[in-house]
Amino acid sequence: MARLIYSAILSLDGYIEDADGGFDWAMPDEETHQFINDLERAAGTYLYGRRMYEMMTAWETDLSLAAESPITRDFAEIWQAAEKIVYSKTLQTVVTRKTRIERNFDAEAIRRLKATAERDLAIGGSELAAQAFRSELIDECQLFLAPILVGGGKPALPKQVRLELTLLEERRFGNGMVYLRYQVG
Question: 67 by DSSP, 3-state: which?
Answer without folding.
Answer: helix
